[in-house]
Design a protein that fits this description.
Blueprint lengths: L20 E5 L5 H10 L3 E6 L3 H10 L8 H7 L2 E4 L6 H10 L8 E4 L10 H5 L3 E7 L8 H5 L4 E5 L5 H10 L3 E4 L5 H28 L5 H19 L7 H4 L2 H14 L4 H17 L5 H12 L1 H6 L3
Parallel strand pairs: 1-2, 1-3, 3-4, 4-5, 6-7
Antiparallel strand pairs: 5-6
Helix pairs in contact: 11-13, 12-13
């Protein structure tokens, strides 16, 4: 008598059809993490290029047993090549690969730059490659934790229309969420992300430095709950989450802030003034701040001597 056996509910991803060999040109923080994520989906990393010792260490940590080769050798071995180099390097790299005949017809060529869409890959497209722009909206550490962070991470996707489904499928395989970005909107899209993420790091670093100057021993512990709540409120409520002395119209408090910053941390003053002016404009535009209070605030923010003279 035969016994019915249920199929394995978790088949080996390597048994899935259409698995690709994957190469990485530029073993910075992003490339090895994406290749490792594709490996979890059943694709096979076969080569990575990297020059610095840090790049080689990252490759060894995230892609053990994958050989470190030249970019040309990576291109020769891989069906899908991740070009994970700095933005300013990308156009020259693509042109060089195309001119030297390294690009193969039908080869998937993926760059991860936020700034560029698919057109930066036109030299490779003319050589027969399939161009995709897949930008993970995530900050990377260069450690295995990056692979975990890709789960649920948005990707800015730009590709020719006929490759759109293929691009989105790759993102989904990496655990990400594809978000279509038109070619002409890539620079604005990237500026928005830089404004939010990169400037946030600078603001937090400056706040921690100032708190240390006041004698706070663990500024990270002090700021963590506050910044976490502020971010959550901003994402949930947008402009309605504005708070603090600028949003309340407390020109005297803002004046005192500027005076203290000028005295103890003058390098932070330009950033404080610029952000405070932006808060005034936002609060005024959305009816959160009375016009007369906004005028007082802008007077304080426009003149450094007013800041010192009006401090209280």
């Amino acid at each position: 008598m035969s016994t019915f056996q249920h199929p394995d509910p978790t088949p080996d991803p390597r048994d899935r059809p259409a698995r690709l060999t994957v190469g990485v040109v530029g073993a910075g923080r992003v490339g090895p993490a994406l290749a490792a994520s594709l490996q979890l989906a059943g694709h096979r990393p076969v080569a990575v290029s990297g020059v610095s010792q840090a790049s080689r260490r990252r490759a060894a940590a995230l892609l053990p047993d994958v050989p470190v080769l030249s970019p040309a050798q990576v291109m020769e071995r891989a069906d899908l090549v991740l070009l994970t180099v700095p933005d300013d390097t990308l156009p020259g790299l693509v042109e060089g690969l195309a001119e030297t005949g390294a690009v193969r017809p039908g080869q998937l060529l993926v760059h991860t730059s936020g700034r560029y869409g698919a057109r930066v890959l036109d030299p490779a497209l003319r050589a027969g490659a399939l161009p995709l722009a897949l930008h993970p909206v995530m900050t990377f550490t260069g450690t295995p934790v990056d692979v975990q962070r890709l789960a649920g991470c948005s990707f800015g996707v730009t590709a020719p229309e006929e490759l759109r489904l293929a691009a989105e499928a790759l993102v989904i395989e990496m655990g990400g969420e594809p978000e279509w970005i038109a070619e002409e909107n890539r620079p604005l899209y990237h500026a928005a992300l830089a404004l939010g993420a990169n400037h946030l790091v600078t603001l937090v670093a400056q706040a921690m430095e100032l708190l240390r100057a006041t004698g706070v021993e663990a500024p990270d512990r002090m700021l963590g709950p506050l910044l976490g709540a502020a971010l959550d409120n901003a994402l949930r409520s947008g402009d309605a989450a504005l708070t603090g002395p600028v949003a309340r119209g407390d020109a005297g408090t803002v004046s005192a802030h500027v005076a203290e910053l000028r005295r103890h941390a003058p390098q932070t003053v330009p950033g404080y003034l610029a952000m405070a002016r932006a808060v005034v404009a936002l609060a005024l535009a959305h009816g959160l701040l009375k016009a007369e209070l906004a005028e007082d605030l802008l007077g304080v923010l426009a003149d450094g001597s007013t800041a010192e003279g009006g401090a209280r």
